[in-house]
Specification:
The structure is a single chain. The chain is built from 3 helices and 5 strands; from the N terminus they run βααββββα. Helices cover 20% and strands 33% of the residues. It has a single domain, classed as Thiol Ester Dehydrase, Chain A, CATH 3.10.129.10. The two termini are 19 Å apart. A hairpin with a 3-residue loop joins strand 3 and strand 4. With 150 residues, the protein is α+β, with helices and mostly antiparallel strands. 25% of the residues are buried.
Amino acid sequence: MADLRMELAEPVFRMEHRVIYGDTDAGGIIYNANYLRFMEMGRTEMMRSHGLPYSEMENEGIILPVTECYLRYKASGRYDDLISIATSLAELTRHTIRFHYRIHCQRDGKELMLVKGFTKHACTDRQGRLMPFPDSIMARISSVRPMEKS
């Protein structure tokens, strides 16, 4: 059973995205699977902001496939909403990394939580074999949020 705790821990990376028609269903509501895309945007830009773009890890032969994800839908996002994607690094082990997310928008002068969730990723080589994070990458990820490694 997945650990469903989803607290954000500092530092929290925040970015905004304006919801376009392509993000929505026929009713103008954000299509549920697109929240996973928004989470990908959040973690990718968070890592880039700390000097570790995914492309650099891929150049070193590291792939981070999603092995687990969870989304808790709280309210519907709509076409033209300006959403805020908050991302934090929650857990780092020799073989996995977990990110937590909160996605909000402003509506009627109030902050409205749309979705909260997490993704967990394995560190693999290009053939999909589990591997430990190289020490150099582990050190750089750890600098995002120093934490105990398992």
